[in-house]
Design goal:
Layout (H helix, E strand, L loop, with lengths): L9 H5 L6 H6 L1 H8 L13 E7 L2 E8 L4 E7 L2 H14 L5 E2 L3
Antiparallel strand pairs: 1-2, 2-3, 3-4
Length: 102
């Protein structure tokens, strides 16, 4: 089986800004963290990632700041509460970040 060729200009595809008005209205800090391509000074920014999983009776989130190479974990009893905690943590800068070693 041969590998499929990527789009002609993958940088344009990968660099397209994603917008979701519902997420932006409900969880503005999460939306900004996941979609913003520029820092406030106008310099390029790599958007963060958010992994959500259910484990041991809890919802858990691993939030990764791709640009700063740090990650943090949060947990909650519902996925809505978990996402609201992530949003609050991003908004008031209370997420405990750990340096990614690799």
């Amino acid at each position: 089986m041969a590998m499929k060729r990527p789009a002609d200009n993958p940088k344009e595809v990968a660099g397209a800004k994603v917008v979701d008005d519902v997420l932006k209205g409900w969880l503005p800090h999460v939306h900004e963290f996941l979609t913003e391509l520029l820092w406030e000074d106008g310099k390029p920014r790599k958007p963060g990632t958010l992994l959500i999983l259910a484990q041991d009776g809890l919802w858990k989130a691993c939030i990764h700041d791709t640009d700063q190479r740090v990650s943090g974990w949060l947990s909650g009893e519902s996925w809505e509460g978990l996402l609201e905690s992530v949003n609050k943590g991003l908004g008031d800068n209370t997420i405990v970040w750990r340096l990614k070693t690799r």
